Amino acid sequence: MKPLATIVLLAFLLIVLPATLSAQDAPGQPAFRSSVDLVPVDVNVIDRTGRPVTGLEAGDFALTIDGKVRRIASAQYVTAAEASAPSAPTYYSSNLAAAGGRLIMLVVDQGSIGAGRGKLALDAASRFVSQLGPADRIGLVTIPVSGPQVDFTTNHAVVQALLPKLIGQATSPGLLHVGISEAADAQRGDAVALRQILDRECSGLRDATEIQECTQRLTAEANLVYQTARERTRASLLALRGLIERLATTTSPKTIVFLSEGLVLDTDSAELSWLGPAASRGQVVLYALHLDPPSSDAEQARVSSTRSQDAAFAEQGLATMAGLARGSVFRVTSTADAAFSRLALELSGYYLLSFEPETEDRDGKVHKIKIGVPGRNGITQEEAQAWAAEQHQLGERDAFYFASTQFCFRARKPA
C-alpha cells in the first residue's frame, strides 16, 4: 500500500493559459506587446486524514523543475461546488447542460474480484454516490466482462441501483499450495522461492519418485497460478485502456475509482507505458480500491500459506497503476466506507496554481518536478520523479507534458 505522507501534493490538470502584459511607449514610438505563458496546475494539499488544507497563498508554495525555481504567479483555492462546468464530450448521453460539478467514473474490475465477492465494497460505493452533489456526474463501467455501462450522468439513482447488484466473477483454479507472490517469484527464476515451495509441500516425502512427482506438480501449479493472474490483468488493462482513451478525447478533469482485488504486472511494468500519456491528455486521475480477499473461501480447499504476501503483491500492481495516473491506492479489508470517505475529502477542493515556465522546460525531455509548501510546520511533500515526456502537435499548437508518479501537467502554447 502506498505510504501516506503527512501532506500529499497531487497535480491534476494542466493547460497553459496566456497572461498578456502590454505596454505603450510614448507617442511617436512603436507600440509593442509582451506576453507570459502561465501554466495552471491543479494541486491537492491534504493532511494525513485526507482533509484539504485551506488558507494557503502563492507565497506558501514552491515549485521547481529539475531543481530550478519557477515563479508562482497565483494560487486560488477552489471547492468542488465552485468548479467550473466541464466541457461536454460527444459521447455523453444526458445532463450535458449541468453547471459545475465533478466527473467521477466508477470502474468495477469484476474479472479480478472472486466469484460472489465484493458486495460490501459495492454497497459502500452506492452510499458514496448518494452523497455526491446534484451537479456531480457519475458513471459506471464493469470490466473486462460485459455488464452495466453508464456514461456520466447527474441521475445518481441509476448508478446507485446498479452497484449492489454487481459481484465478482473471477473463478479460482482451486489449487492453493502455491500463492501468487511465490508463483511470480518462481516464474521469474527465483531459485530460493522455488526451493521454499518444495521444502514446504514435499517435506514429508522420502521416495525419490514421489519427490520428483511433487516437484513437477508444484512447478505446474505455480505456472497455472501465475498465468491465470496475468491473463486477468491483461484483460483488465486492455478494457481500462479503452475507457481512458475514450475519456481522453476531452480535457475536462475526471476521476476514476477502480475497484479490484489486484493486478499482477511484469517486473518492468512496460504494459502500463500508455497510462501516463493517456491520463495526461484526458486529465484523468485514478484512485484504486484494493479489495482484500477474505481469509477463507468456500471455493478454496486450502488457504494460501503466503496470504499476506499475496495481498501485498496484488496491491503493488494497483499502486503502480494509480501512481502513473497521479492517484492513490486504498486497501479495503471489509466495507469500503472509510476509503470512500477519504476519497470524498480529497476531491472536495484543490488549489489552482499558475507558474511561469522557461524555454528550457519545453524541450520534450524527461524532467523532475517538485512542489512543496516550505515554512509550514508539519507539512511534508513527496518528490515527483518524471518517468516520461513527449512532444505532441495539436493542430498548429505545440504541446508538452510532464508525467510522473505524483505530478502530471500538460501545457499548450497559445496560438
Mind explaining what this structure looks like?
- Helix 1 packs parallel to helix 8 (337-346).
- This protein folds into three domains: 8-22 and 32-83 and 348-412, no CATH class; 103-173 and 227-346, von Willebrand factor, type A domain (Rossmann fold, 3-Layer(aba) Sandwich), CATH 3.40.50.410; 180-222, no CATH class.
- It has eight helices and 18 strands.
- It is globular, with a radius of gyration of 24 Å.
- The protein has 415 residues and is of the alpha+beta class.
Highlighted features:
415 residues; alpha+beta; Rossmann fold; 3 domains; 6-stranded mixed sheet; 27% helix; disordered N terminus
Q: Based on helices, strands and strand pairing, what is the structural class?
A: alpha+beta
Q: Tell me the total number of β-strands.
A: 18
Q: Could you spell the SSE succession in H and E letters?
A: EEEEEEEHEEHHHHEHEHEHEEEEEE
The percent range for helix content is 25-40%
Under CATH, the homologous superfamily of the largest domain reads von Willebrand factor, type A domain
Largest sheet: 6 strands, mixed
Strand content: 25-35%
C-alpha end-to-end distance: 43 Å
Number of helices: 8
Average pLDDT confidence is: 75
